[in-house]
């Protein structure tokens, strides 16, 4: 099967809804559904978080960041962390764990490096989106964080599939990978039950135009992608113009976002 045939095969599967997730992703999806249950008691939520050591560690780390009003008072246990950040913010951490699971089954070292870069990019975009939502666009910061985490989920799925097609993403001069990623993203987002407003913003991201006065979730993601220090390895071009934010504002946003990005987890895919 040549490269074009492989892209066509993957795109056709996605168009049919034939998307299969790794077992680890399905396990995190079950966790997300449980936490989304309005009848989920805080004790059950804590038990579920503790069942995933990575999630437990990141929950405590995130609760201790300036973005969540730690005020210098550190928490050291999951119960206090969950109570501080709340269920909605916990959902973002579950999404981060789920997205990273796609990279765990990648064996090819080149693709694995791309997946690690893609996670670093996603974490930076998510943290910047949250800060931008607070101070610039005034959209809901928790939604912005979540949207940033999942905005490249189609790319992670494509990388996980490319592991079975050697050389699939090498020297993609015709950008077939970008086109297939868009097709795949739509179906992956549907399968993951991503909320409609987030799905719409992600779908419009590649060709999106920034409003003169940024105020939407799409604007927030466009700005976060523009200012993220690490770009996507999947054909996304880094924008060179300075954009609408002055240096002082951008510095303050990046400072605020830095510990949130770190709390979401480093790039290493265990």
Q: Assess the beta-strand content as a share of residues.
A: under 5%
Number of helices: 12
CATH architecture label name = Orthogonal Bundle
DSSP, total strands: 0
Cα radius of gyration in angstroms: 18 Å
Proportion of residues in helical segments = 55-70%
- CATH topology descriptor: Hypothetical protein af1432
Output the structural class: mainly alpha
Structure in words:
This protein has 270 residues and is mostly helical. The chain has one domain (3-264): Hypothetical protein af1432 (Orthogonal Bundle). The chain is 64% helix and 0% strand. It has twelve helices and no strands. The protein has helices at 3-15, 23-36, 42-50, 53-63, 78-101, 109-137, 141-150, 153-162, 176-191, 196-203, 217-227, 247-264. Helix 4 crosses helix 5 and helix 8 packs across helix 9 (176-191). The longest helix has 29 residues, at 109-137. The radius of gyration is 18 Å and the shape is globular.
Structure at a glance:
This protein has helices at 3-15, 23-36, 42-50, 53-63, 78-101, 109-137, 141-150, 153-162, 176-191, 196-203, 217-227, 247-264. The protein is 64% helix and 0% strand. The protein is globular and about 55 Å long.
What are the defining features of this structure?
mainly alpha; HD-like signal output (HDOD) domain, no enzymatic activity; RNase_Y/CdgJ; HDOD; 270 residues
Secondary-structure blueprint:
Layout (H helix, E strand, L loop, with lengths): L2 H13 L7 H14 L5 H9 L2 H11 L14 H24 L7 H29 L3 H10 L2 H10 L13 H16 L4 H8 L13 H11 L19 H18 L6
């Amino acid at each position: 099967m040549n490269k074009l045939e492989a892209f066509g095969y993957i795109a056709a599967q996605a168009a049919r809804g034939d998307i299969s997730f790794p077992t680890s992703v399905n396990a995190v999806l079950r966790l997300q559904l449980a936490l989304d249950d309005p009848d989920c008691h805080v004790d059950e939520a804590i038990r579920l978080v503790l069942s995933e050591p990575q999630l437990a560690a990141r929950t405590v780390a995130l609760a201790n960041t300036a973005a969540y009003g730690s005020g210098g008072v550190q928490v050291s246990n999951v119960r206090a962390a969950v109570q501080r950040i709340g269920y909605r913010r916990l959902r973002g951490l579950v999404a981060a764990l789920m997205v990273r699971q796609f990279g765990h089954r990648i064996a090819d070292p080149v693709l694995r490096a791309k997946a690690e870069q893609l996670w670093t990019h996603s974490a930076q975009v998510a943290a910047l989106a949250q800060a931008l939502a607070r101070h610039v666009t005034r959209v809901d910061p928790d939604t912005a964080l979540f949207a940033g985490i999942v905005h490249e989920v189609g790319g992670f799925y494509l990388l996980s599939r490319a592991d079975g097609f050697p050389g699939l993403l090498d020297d993609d001069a015709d950008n077939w990978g970008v086109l297939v990623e868009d097709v795949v993203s739509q179906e992956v987002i549907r399968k993951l039950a991503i909320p409609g407003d987030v799905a719409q913003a992600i779908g419009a991201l590649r060709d999106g135009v920034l409003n003169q006065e940024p105020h939407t979730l799409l604007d927030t993601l466009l700005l976060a992608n523009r200012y993220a220090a690490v770009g996507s390895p999947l054909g996304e071009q880094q924008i060179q113009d300075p954009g609408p934010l002055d240096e002082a504002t951008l510095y303050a946003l990046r400072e605020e976002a830095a510990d949130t990005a770190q709390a979401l987890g480093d790039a290493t895919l265990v």
